[in-house]
Amino acid sequence: MTETPPIVVAALYHFARLDRYEALKQPLAELCCRHGLKGTLLLASEGVNGTLAGPRAGIDAMLAFLRAQPELAGLEHKESFADTMPFYRLKVRLKREIVTMGVPDTDPTRIVGTYVAPEDWNDLIADPDTVVIDTRNDYEVKIGTFEGAVNPQTQTFREFPDWVRRNENALRGKKIAMFCTGGIRCEKATAFVRSLGHEEVYHLKGGILNYLETVPEPVSTWNGECFVFDERVAVGHGLSLGTHALCRACRQPLSPEEMASPEYREGVQCPHCVGRFSDADRARFAERQRQVELAHRRGERHIGDGPWPADG
Question: pLDDT above 70 covers what percent of the chain?
């Protein structure tokens, strides 16, 4: 019997009117420190969002604290497991938004799209009257998406509302089906689109990760891998580890073909950023990579070998 790895990784978010969010920061930070939790937790007047890792007892204590707040009683979370701590520090931050779209008064607790279970997603997006929209950023879409999905080619989620406004005529009268990695961006995206008067707006419950975990690969309409904001970089069907790595200079995900490029130098540059940095920058990156390799040979992890920072 395989033993469960000792580190629990809990990903969570919940939209709620949380007017007293500032008062929660200190007790949450103290609780997390006391239990040895690391990762990032964002608090805003619209709710909570974050990923924290640590021992079972600590994760349970943190979740119990959050759910003890009346506004967050319905908070759901998703767990995975790790052999070693995937984060280097704890950050509990106050923000204007728990996922940054930049449109005031977009409120998923008031208006939101219709949730679609992973088992029903294929039928919805196969409908010729459905426009399927990938709400993620371009670097994420590049490594995998659903068949027939529209790529808005955004660099940040802040650009998504402007893309919707520019394409209002093409969307009018259509079924609009949107998806993202874990569901949080779609909560806001569907709320915004519905606020413009579109009625048939849908989103994939639990996001791509839930689909890849639930839908068997032989009947899946997903192509490629799914970018994730942690040290795995990307996952495939069944949430198996993907083939992509991260450029430690520009933070772009890299395919095996890109890593085979003569322009790729591990930790220093890749085809995306080969002309972007100065000689001094590349020298600094090379020294960081040398320290990473020395740490690996000692059986340790170097802070320069950490995961991609989460995109709010």
Answer: 95
Asked whether the beta carbons of 74 and 125 are under 8 A apart, the reply is no
Q: What is the pLDDT of residue 302?
A: 57
Taking residues 176-188, report their average pLDDT: 94
How many CB atoms lie under 10 A from the CB of residue 300?
Answer: 10
Name the pTM for this structure: 0.86
pLDDT band at 1; cut points 50, 70, 90: low
State how beta strands 253-254 and 245-246 pair. Answer: antiparallel
Q: How far apart are CA 244 and CA 236, in angstroms?
A: 10
What domains does the chain contain, in order, with CATH numbers?
7-94 (3.30.70.100), 114-224 (3.40.250.10), 244-311 (no CATH)
Active site residues: 180
Q: What stretches of the chain adopt beta strand conformation (E)?
A: 7-15, 38-44, 47-54, 76-82, 90-94, 114-116, 130-134, 144-146, 175-179, 201-204, 222-224, 226-227, 234-235, 245-246, 253-254
Paired sense of beta strands 234-235 and 226-227, if any: antiparallel
